[in-house]
Fold this protein.
Amino acid sequence: MKPDKIKEIISGKIKELKKLGNKLNNDLDKATIHEFRIAVKSIRSFLRLLRTAYNEPGPKLPGKFKRLYHIAGAIRDAQLELENLAANNTSLPIYSGKLNNDIKRQKKEWDRHYSEKIFRKIKKRLAGYEYETLSPDALAAFYNMKITGMKTLSNTRPCTSAQIHNIRKQAKDIIYTAKLAQKEWKPAYKKLKHTPLAQLEDIATAIGDYNDDRVQLEHLASFSSPETELAEINEIKKITKKDAAKLKKGKKEILDMVKKIQIQKPQKQKTKLIILNTKLHEHKINAQKR
């Protein structure tokens, strides 16, 4: 991939971020937050690929932009918890009120920190970087590194929730860059036929569900209010006990999924073997003649 193509891809992703950021500035709805976070993860994965290929620190997204990303994530977590409680017909009035207040507070944080200058800073920082040509082999090497990292994390004992989350980040880096390569970098994408993309999608989805349950469990377990009645307290205890058992089972299933990942090594080219065998056969015949 040539430097001009790299800049073109990054420019397109920045435009998408700005568009979604402006949309969120008018309405921080769940669907747009989801789109925004996916767009952030996509450009972040591409930048990680570049840093790995170039073996140097830059380029990175600015800290002020990361703050907006985390604010949007906090709002999304609260929205998902409220949605989950409603889907299960669970009545937690005081806790639900706390979640709604969290959303209101985070929206104020968004209003306080949001600025179009942030997106101009992203553009200036990333457009000004001196990119080098990327070999298609760089993508395959990136994937091997990520999958090795996933397996290393899964073999850690005990494997913490933070490490489970990092496994998902490794898998997502592969998935997002694979989608980009399929559209924008065909020579590199052709080298991915031995990469278990479907398995990685399943792992990322499983960990996403696991993380949502973990966040809810942590929030419920740490929740305390003098206004909470005994019935709500008992319901929270019931939910946390159920969620804890679910997370334990989910973690085991995720680690088993990671262990099963296998990258098939490309078979040796038959043409080369035929040529080699032919030469050996000719050598034997000549030796016999002598």
Notes: The radius of gyration is 25 Å.
